[in-house]
Fold this protein.
Amino acid sequence: MDTVASALQRLDHLAATPRIARLAAAFSAAGHELALVGGPVRDAFLDRRVNDLDFTTDASPDEILEIVVPLAEAHWDVGRQFGTIAARVDGEVVEITTYRSDVYDGETRKPVVEFGDTLEGDLVRRDFTVNAMALRLPEQVLVDPSGGVEDLLAGRLATPGSAVDSFRDDPLRMMRAARFVAQLGFSVSDEVREAISARASTLSIVSVERVADELSKLLRTDTPRDGIRLMVDTGLADHVLPELAAMRLEIDEHHHHKDVYEHSLTVLDQAIGYERERHPGEAPDLTLRLAALLHDCGKPDTRRLEPGGVVTFHHHDVVGSKLARRRLRALRFDNDTTKAVSRLIELHLRFFGYTEGAWTDSAVRRYVRDAGDELERLHMLTRADVTTRNKRKADRLGFAYDDLEARIADLREREALDSLRPDLDGDDIQRVLGISPGREVGEAYRFLLELRTEEGPLGSEVATDRLLAWWAARAS
């Protein structure tokens, strides 16, 4: 972050934008306070792009509506019970919330919402000091009762009051701490770290959907590694991704890293690098990042010490696939994400047989067929999984994968590889064999698909002859 003076200039510039100036003038004319609060103020200080505009006011929800409706193209009051009114002003959505002073019961993270009467009182209830700053409008006066500017300058996450009390009120704030560490590149104060370690188990009172949402936000940051480290080091990961924390106990079989966990963080970093290199400007790929982080989660359960002291992890791809599927279901990720992550983990070792000898065309077709829609992600994951410090070996694996991708491209051009289907469809099978829809049609289809994979396109005439021969042999 540059000087405070420069940051204040950016805040002044933000406050002077027509949309904000119109809102500020309207609230002032109605005799009410208005302040830009939280993330927008923090991000303006950090010279980060300001995406969401959040405001707070002494006006009640009804009074907010009276002021905002004449200015807005649309408005929503679904958050009215919590004091929040959303509106679209000059084409962008803003949220305006009445000052609050929530009271928590200590058993759940649902507060008893009580409206407050001062801006300062509203700010000190917030999660971290860097999010507890506001810019009064239209005066453009910075309000910072908890020392947020000092913590911004120090690159530090601290809470406005006691960290233990803050996380007791809302345990999800511990996950938010991990996300902000990754998102902002900050460290946490000693008090925050100790409080997370002490209260990690209380995350269980938070709905799994909210936990998964914070985990997803963390993984979508530019550099999630430090946020993940905080989760693992404080024990928070034990209650979110216990498979990840368990990987610290295992030394990988090649001794490239002190443990499989460190290797997995490196794979995640490299997967993000390939993601940006191959798909610049696209949104972060949560599926790829989950697969990279969990690709070796089956190793603790498959570790074996072989004669001579060699450590093996046979079938950790299959075991890891099942563990990841179970964990993502427990976190209630959607079915498509869960299925894709599980499939990528199951397939992530497949390529390494390619370096042991040239694959036949049928093996390449099978690789593409088995990967299906996840082929591009499998390319990136497999490349990211090469973390050896031996440059010669890394180059050899890289060249081998270049060769595999080139062969896939060649077969794709010659054989319509992306839509790998038998030469005869279900209707053709029924006509040729004189059978009705049922199990036998499915068996015949699988036979023809395997034939197509092994031998490439045959044409309908040859495929028909081979199908009839298979059918006759099956009958006998």
In short: The chain has a mean pLDDT of 89. The chain has 23 helices and eleven strands. The two ends are 79 Å apart (CA to CA).
